[in-house]
Amino acid sequence: MGFLEVKDLKVHYPVRGGVLNTIQDYVRAVDGVNLTIESGKTYGLVGESGSGKTTIGKTIIGLEKATSGKILYEGENVTNRARSRKKKYANYNKDVQMIFQDSTSSMNPKKRIIDVMGEPMHNYFDYTPDEIKRRVAELLDIVGMNPEAMYKYPHEFSGGQRQRIGVARAVASDPKLIIADEPTSALDLSVQAQVLNFMRRIQKEYNLSYLFISHDLGVVRHMSDNIAIMHKGRFVEKGPKETIYNDPQHIYTKRLLSAIPDMDPSTREEKKIERQRVEAEYDAQETEYYDPDGRVYDLQSYKGNHFVATKPEGSNSSLQNESINTGGEA
Amino acid sequence: MAVEQNLLEVNNLKTGFRFGEEYHNAVDGVSLTLKKNEILAIVGESGCGKSTLATAIMGLHDPNNTKISGEILYKDLDLTDLNERLYNRIRGNDIGMIFQDPLGSLNPLMTIYNQIAEALIYHTDFDDKQIRARVLELLNQVGIPRPEQIMKAYPHELSGGMRQRIVIAIALANKPPIIIADEPTTALDVTIQAQILDLMRDIQAETGSGIILITHDLGVVAETADRVAVMYAGQIVEEAPVDVLFKDPKHPYTRSLLNSIPHELEEGEELHVIHGTVPSLQHLPRKGDRFRPRIPWIPDEAFDENPELTEIAPNHKVRGNSWKHFHFEGEEK
Amino acid sequence: MWKTIFRRLLLMIPQIIILSILIFIIAEFMPGDPFTGMIDPNIDPAQLDAMRERFGLNDPLPVKYIRWVGNALQGDFGRSFNYKTSVVNVIGDRLGNTVRLSLLSTVLTYMIGLPLGILSGRYNDSILDKSVIIYNFVSFAVPTFVLALLMVYIFGFNLGWFPSRGSIDVSAVTFWERTWSRMYHLILPSITTAVLGTVSIIQYLRTEIIDAKVSDYVKTARSKGVPINKVYTKHIFRNASLPIASGFGYTIVNLLTGSIFIEQIFSYSGMGKLFLDSINTRDYSVIFVLVLLYGILGLIGTLLSDLILMAVDPRIRID
After folding, report:
1. B194 and chain A: CB distance < 8 Å anywhere?
2. What are chain C's domains?
């Protein structure tokens, strides 16, 4: 069962205007999203820019405030409490970490790697300086880096090395979940492969979970067990990886998948025709998949745990809270 | 087959950047040709010199800190010899360029109309009416809806995909026979990328121009290119028609790169990782096989003293002979 | 856009009220009053008290404030005890001088700053650029009064090329004589102000131009075949001048406030000198109006700067 649950999460930003600068409307960055993260698994969150995928990650870690909805960590309500200093939430703070697209921009440039990585250890464990040193060396070794690296400053590393340090730092507090927001988007192919390999190795070793946020469908497919496709702040489709890639149901998922370039040049023409067909279908069937306000419909069970957001048959069958059946109302 | 005419011919081009007193070549002896009606992709990872090559062809490098040698032949001109005034007649008129970041490559303070019209002003003697007609025609060609309105807009008012269409319209303004596109879809979402790549192919088919497509994305190459040149450390290591390159890659670098594309894996299997890192410009090995440090398990005798780009099959060129002895680590030859 | 201007103007009303109350309270706590200086064995303290009573100085604060506001709304800002005339007249006399001085200084500042900034940005790392940087360092480091005194000493006192004090010659009678005399008196103080004022213009322009030179839109423009000089005039300079344009609102406002240092050293009878003199003579009614005026001008300057930025940068739209 999942240890982290997000229930009907909404993150809205007010839009101000008028003579008195009052709230005119809201930008619905995340608009009613449910997800469950299971231990040792990777949950892939896919969407184009502006879909709200990053906002979900940031809200879980406490960098954005939830407007409504709940985040439950091991049954405890931790919504908007991620940065609380109360002891009650200490475990949550320690257990959930984040990796960004550019890890070093989230590191103090005036601190050496040992200081950057030692900080979470200092905060969460009573390590002696010697133990910290040993542990940092160990973590650097796991991501394939020399122990000497700990005495260098963040800017002295290449892009791939920085991301590996970012992974190592996230692991330093011995977390259960790492939120990885586009961790390899700025990297070259061969370097990306390296970082992805390390992430998978660490996952196995520590039984880690990932919330893997990316626009790159190939990378998400490579990394994830379960996938949710996001559009306009809502999930259009979610389910096990195979079902999404092999049997996409929502028109937006189909459109996204048909746009991925294929590595086989010989099928180019067919792919183009297929893409244009899906594109036309997308335009034609918009009302089937989006309500009159352009909002994505609630998810409906399609097959087993494969959910698709389609127009409800009757007016009262709208349920987005399908996969949540645990108690633990906090 | 009809005689294919060379639009552009680059011979032994070297581009050196100044570091203190010394010059280091980012492009180090590149020769290639671009024909009419083809899309030539130049693919490689960051720092391989692919963008420097584009800048050199456009003559946009900083003359104070860059040294260029070799030839860039267009019609009967060697572009490396041109002065600034003559080069300005070529830029935009004979060679159009498309850049990576569609927001950054448009002037934020100028309307779309003025930015497209500017490309026409210096190369035609159109009057205002003709310019306006041509701008509208271009906007229609690149698939901009409501061109009359969009024309008056500023870049920040458009979406990323729209902006890139505008950038393409600017490059097309004077119907240049050559278009250079430097990572044209890297900053775009995948659905927009597909649209832009389709558009580029359509335009290419319509105008018969030759396109040099610079990218790091093998998917974009497979989807768009006719011919591919793979660059590593300032040199072309392999050049082949697109289907050959993906079906039968030869050079160790090409093969390693294709192998590191994320895909679904068997239990216990990992993505292929290329050993070591790309050396920085100052530390680039200038002698012997430049890829050699990245494949240390291949015996020394497999490498040439001075690997040359040689044709191993019609239209298929590979640098050196190491490919004949190459196998992945832990795999039998 | 009109909505924004309207809203901003509306917002200024409470701001001005709060500002005036604050200044009123502070002025009240200042030691002494206009009659303090008249304490003299020959004057009966009871007489002074009677005068205080007569001028309403003993009334409670809110009463005085409301009385003042009531008068101010009718254009009566009180009387200067020092100059024995209405505050409006006192300020009116000085305002013209200050505007003339500031206007010339501002024009000179831009005439020196813009070309130097443009040249050093365009040809950065050249000898010219390096000289401009040195000039910038020096003009930034030298205190106003040092340069002003130096100018007075060299050009006014030693060489005698320019008058070293005052705003007009008493012997000038006809219109043309007076105009010429005014101009002549302006030259030295305005050049001094201009030389010291160019730092930010040059620095902003230079760095903005250097940044813009390598920007992608400049690459696009060059790859269209636009000649390099046109690239500078049409693309680089416009983008590089945005921060300066936004500062222009404050510059316009500064025309009215004047420079305390310069006016004092050149004994130039303007707003700055008036401010200083009023403080020295505890002429609270003048100080009060001046501080309020500076506060209001500051608010207007901010609004003007925002409006200018809106006019030149299409990305900034406030509705």
Report:
1. yes
2. 88-312 (1.10.3720.10)
